[in-house]
Design a protein that fits this description.
The protein has 243 residues and is an all-alpha fold. It contains ten helices and no strands. Helix content is 88%, strand content 0%.
């Protein structure tokens, strides 16, 4: 799936790189010449041109500060993510994000279901299997729910009941687990859950990447058109002044 996403992103990434080069040439070489000519003739620059020049001048002078800020933000994010509280907060946020949260949740549930189902089918004790499956899920929110479910199972409850109460697991997953427990085929039902959600993740990623490509192209076109407009407007003013 990762290689598929990478291959899909090659074309829009190349287009964005080309757009960046075009914008850099326009802002660095062409726009200053036109604006310099207009300034020498006493013409007033359009607001959009002044804004782009201000951003360009700021980036040219303070590029090192921008680079340091980006590196510092990435470093701080990684440090926070490694802490227990920070990691838990990021996990909660990731589950609430639109579209991305759906993928994160489905991946965690698929990992949990496949690991637990495989270990149960191999004869591993359910408590030990749940502890391992919690770590494989790799999400503190889902892991907390699994911990609570493990405690409930130790106390004699079914696996489905605490998962349903948590509201973190989709009702379809809980229903399939409940049916598996009643039929004595929990391991097989968990593997079916994993297969279902693997397919759901693949379908969602395909739809997301298919929408992302035209969106990136539209953004690229919009940025380039903005720069071109900032160049053309001074040229039109220069033409009008010569007339």
């Amino acid at each position: 799936m990762s290689s598929r996403v990478t291959s899909i992103m090659v074309y829009p990434s190349a287009m964005l790189a080309f757009a960046f080069i075009v914008v850099l040439v326009l802002v660095t070489f062409i726009l200053p010449q036109i604006t310099g000519l207009l300034a020498s003739m006493g013409a007033e620059l359009p607001a959009i041109t002044r804004w782009i020049i201000a951003v360009s001048d700021f980036a040219t002078v303070w590029w090192w500060a921008i680079l340091l800020a980006v590196v510092g933000a990435v470093f701080a994010f990684r440090r926070i993510a490694k802490t227990e509280a920070g990691g838990a907060a990021l996990d909660r946020i990731s589950l609430r994000l639109p579209i991305i949260g759906r993928i994160v949740r489905f991946v965690a549930i698929s990992r949990f279901a496949r690991t637990l189902g495989s270990m149960l089918s191999s004869g591993v004790n359910i408590i030990q299997a749940m502890e391992i499956a919690k770590n494989v899920a790799n999400n503190s929110v889902i892991g907390g729910v699994i911990d609570g479910a493990k405690t409930a199972v130790i106390e004699g409850s079914s696996l489905a009941a605490p998962l349903r109460q948590s509201r973190e697991f989709p009702s379809m997953v809980v229903t399939m687990i409940e049916v598996g427990e009643r039929a004595g085929e929990l391991d097989e039902m968990l593997l079916r859950v994993a297969d279902t959600y693997d397919q759901q993740v693949e379908t969602t990623v395909e739809r997301l990447t298919s929408l992302l490509e035209p969106l990136l192209i539209l953004v690229m076109v919009g940025v380039v058109m903005l720069i071109v407009l900032a160049v053309l407007m001074p040229l039109m003013e220069l033409t009008n002044s010569l007339d």
